[in-house]
Amino acid sequence: MNRVGWKGISLLGTVVVLKGLAEFAGLLLIGQGLVYALSFGRHEVNGVYRFFRLMTSPVVRLTRAITPQKVSDKHVPFVALILIFWIWLFLSYFKYSMMLGQAA
Description:
By secondary structure, the chain is mainly alpha-helical.
């Protein structure tokens, strides 16, 4: 295979890995929200919630850094979920278009 072919496969692999990471982060944020809703105000003592919070803290910190200060800290995980969704959607479209390009 020539260099262009390997470069395309490498880029596609990178997109697939990034899409998988976005899916993982999104599922962690959804899980954190579900445990929050089902713990009836006692989420801080719930071990599963603390695990989800630990795993999602990099995404939430990054979202906090790019959102205006008017956005409450309570709403930042939801904003992070929306951003992860749009990133996932973009990567899905990019992966699909790359796969179509390689098939031709």
